[in-house]
Design a protein that fits this description.
disordered N terminus; about 280 residues; globular; alpha/beta; two-stranded antiparallel ribbon; 7-stranded mixed beta sheet
Length: about 280
């Protein structure tokens, strides 16, 4: 923005001029005989208290856009069904369940080279992810770092792969996922015995996911070296054609196709967080 476009009040010789607005305190300016409205009184404000225009204005605009999108968004029948089932498993007053874990587990995770910071895929994000990954009945889906299991169960409810597996290093979060799966089994029509879903408590780098054809990784807070180690294991074990959706981008690799950057609604950015989609070559 050019500096001359800012609406800055100036006081010159007792005449109050609001740049760009054309308002003055005296009724006849410079003897031109132009009658103007009464002066607009501006309250005094200390410079330290004045909000930064460069910060405040974009924030207001962003909020307006998000509000407009949320108010006009159409919820599909499959999303309504999925959210209804998930609400039975994870009550709304337990939305943050699993976000905090014991210090002893945080220490284990940090010793493995990773971080315990947690976030999740949102329901509308699960639908978008399933469509972008083109999950089909022949696919096997893995969630590497599956947390409380919510994301994998949402993918299960909105797609048709033949098998779903979640792998999580935190015992607390894996226990929550196992209990949630028990609840899912009690909901009529929620599960299909021919399409199993399971959760494993172990380090992703020690797990066997060589049969994966689709991999989801909520890796935004993973250190770069952990992301690189996961990539090396993926390339070394899975078959070409495996599709990968990851929060944090991979380093360049000869056996990984160029990334397609997409926006997926996440708990830390409901309007859409940059997510990266790859395929193994």
């Amino acid at each position: 923005m050019r500096c001359c476009s800012k609406k800055v009040p100036l006081i010159i010789g007792g005449i109050l001029i609001l740049g760009g607005l054309g308002l003055y305190t005296n009724k006849h300016f410079m003897g031109q005989g132009i009658t103007l409205p009464p002066a607009v009184e501006i309250p005094q404000q200390r410079p330290a208290d004045k909000p930064s225009e460069s910060v405040a204005k974009p924030a207001q605009k962003a909020e307006g856009v998000a509000s407009k999108e949320s108010s006009t968004e159409i919820i599909s029948p499959e999303q309504k069904r999925m959210e209804s089932i998930i609400d039975q498993i994870f009550p709304k007053d337990q939305m943050k369940i699993g976000f905090e874990i014991p210090e002893s587990e945080k220490s284990i995770i940090e010793k493995s080279g990773s971080k315990s910071t947690y976030g999740e895929l949102l329901p509308v994000g699960a639908i978008r992810a399933a469509k972008l990954l083109k999950i089909a009945p022949t696919d096997i889906v893995y969630d590497l770092g599956s947390g409380t299991g919510r994301a994998l169960m949402m993918l299960y409810l909105v797609s048709s792969a033949k098998k779903y597996v979640g792998i999580e290093i935190s015992k607390t979060r894996d226990d929550i996922a196992q209990e949630a799966l028990k609840k899912l089994r009690t909901i009529p029509g929620a599960l299909n015995a021919k399409r199993p879903i399971e959760f494993q408590h172990q380090n992703v780098l020690n797990a066997n996911f060589s049969d994966a054809t689709v991999i989801y990784i909520s890796s935004l807070c993973f250190p770069p070296e952990v992301v690189d180690a996961i990539l090396d294991k993926i390339v070394a074990t899975v078959k070409p054609g495996c599709r990968i959706l990851t929060s944090k981008p991979f380093s360049e690799h000869p056996h990984i196709g160029p990334a397609e950057v997409v926006e997926i609604p996440m708990s830390w950015r409901p309007t859409g967080s940059k997510t990266h989609m790859y395929s193994v070559q």
